[in-house]
Design goal:
With about 160 residues, the protein is an alpha+beta fold. It has 6 helices and 6 strands, in the order αβααββααβββα. It has helices spanning about 1-10, 15-25, 30-45, 60-70, 75-95, 135-160, and strands at about 15, 45-50, 55-60, 100-105, 110-120, 125-135. The chain has a 3-stranded antiparallel beta sheet with strand order 1-3-2. Strands 4-5-6 form a 3-stranded antiparallel beta sheet, with helices on one face. α1 crosses α4 and α1 (about 1-10) runs parallel beside α5. It is globular. The protein starts with a helix and ends with a helix.
């Protein structure tokens, strides 16, 4: 639950190093326990991995968000406060404004996904995982998203808001 809560509090995908910094350095969990639970959460579908700019990061799944929301009050208040404060400080340090991220993730040896996102101070404004087929198609999607992300975001937002 603590790992799920931490992933939810940060509102961005977290690397193993960031989880380590928040949970181990603060004395909430030891490293081996944390990594054991991360592997269990992955296998149970509570969290997933995502490749962003070549780095593996952990993200909550819908199932993980629901579980964290249901049992959040079971985590001691002091632990929740420590995690929340770390998240606030990290997001303030990020303070990078709007960021456009696009990466390619292999589904298997010959199939690829394009993982693209627009983030504001670490908060996702738009995230898209698009099956692209070949590596070249994924490269094309990545290039198009990077160059036209603002227009794409505007079009999607207009379509969603239309009545």
């Amino acid at each position: 639950l603590i790992i799920l809560y931490a992933l939810g509090a940060f509102k961005i995908s977290m690397s193993e190093e960031r989880l380590h910094e928040v949970l181990v350095w603060s004395g909430i969990l030891d490293y081996f326990t944390m990594m054991n639970f991360v592997l269990e959460l992955l296998s149970s579908g509570m969290i997933t991995t995502v490749e962003i700019e070549g780095n593996t990061r952990y993200d909550l799944t819908r199932k993980g968000k629901e579980l964290a929301g249901l049992f959040e009050d079971k985590i001691p208040r002091s632990v929740r406060d420590t995690i929340y404060d770390s998240a606030e400080q990290a997001l303030d340090r990020i303070a990078r404004g709007r960021e456009i991220v696009a990466d390619i993730v292999a589904v298997d040896r010959k199939k690829y996904l394009a993982v693209c996102g627009i983030y504001e101070r670490g908060t996702p404004l738009l995230e898209v995982r698009l099956f692209a087929g070949s590596r070249q198609s994924a490269e094309d999607v990545k290039a198009r998203f990077t160059s036209g992300a603002a227009d794409l975001y505007k079009i999607i937002l207009e379509k969603i808001v239309e009545s």
